[in-house]
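Worked example 4.2. Below are the chains of a multi-component assembly; read each line carefully before continuing.
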Amino acid sequence: MHELISRYIADTIRHLKPAERMEVEKELKANIQDMLSENPSEEEVAQTLLSMGSPSSLAAKYRGSEQYLIGPATYDTYIMVLKIVALVVSLVTMVFTTLSFFFSPSGLSIFEMIAKLLASIFSAASGAFLWVTITFAILDRYQVKTDLKEWNLTELRNLEEIATREIKKKDSIADLVGLSLFFLFLGFMYMRNDLLGLNLHTSQGAYPLFVAEVVRPYSWVDADNHHRILCCHV
Amino acid sequence: MDSRELLINFVTELNRGTLTLCVLSQLTNPQYGYSLLQILSEKNIDLEANTLYPMLRRLESQGVLESSWNTSENRPRKFYQLTEEGKAIYAALTNKWKEQQSHIEALLGEESHA
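Applying the procedure described above to all two chains together yields the following structure tokens:
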């Protein structure tokens, strides 16, 4: 058989499920040979293959369904989660990076600080994007259809509920702000744990409420190390 | 998208279901891919090879067609034929087509006389 045909068929079945490949290969081979004359010229083979379209488009027709990383059914939820995660991650990163400037003065100019801040936010947001996308791609691939039950009119929200839903959106923004403040507080206590303590009126003085050393190995904002690295560069 | 492209899209959509009906109509007797393509093209049904071959396979997986390899000739060929279920579906689909055609005919006729 002509080599071009073999290559065309190989390139087509490559896109199919392994179980289907053998059969489609055999069938395509027979069909394409039927379309050609007994001893086809190079030109004839080329024309016939061109008329069949690209291997990937032919394979798509064999599969019968389009392939998606994140399909239309999941897309809306994906975008919603992506927005929330990107917002939270960016806020938290912003807070932590800003804090690290205050607690470990590094001699950076204000422009360098802003550049560094933007760079950290960008890198954190990229990470968030990556992981949300991977999670949804996996969900989408192995998804059992979630809304099997038939849609009914009772599922329509009445207009009042839609209004409260808007307030809920404001609530969630308040949540985000609250969460950021909490992380700010946490970061603050992590770096200056001597500022808040418990005074038991004993001779030993105040017990610190937060012990930074305990969390330090797990922390990604290690102010001391950070500072040292920057000093080396100067 | 210019209007010619738009028209092509509409024609593709219009053909999608009817081509299946055309293919089913010719499979009371077994046919292989290329012979079917020739029969249809003789009868002015414009169906591309790259549409027909995957369609046959899909119809088989749906249980409408059954296939068997004929290896007695010098070249092995896969012959497709309607199953019992396929015959019933083809008959029902034909009735549906005729019914729908008369309705649409009436609509279009109305339009041209208006």
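Take a moment to check your reading of the output against the notes. The domain at 3-113 of chain B is CATH 1.10.10.10 (Arc Repressor Mutant, subunit A). The mean pLDDT of chain B is 90.
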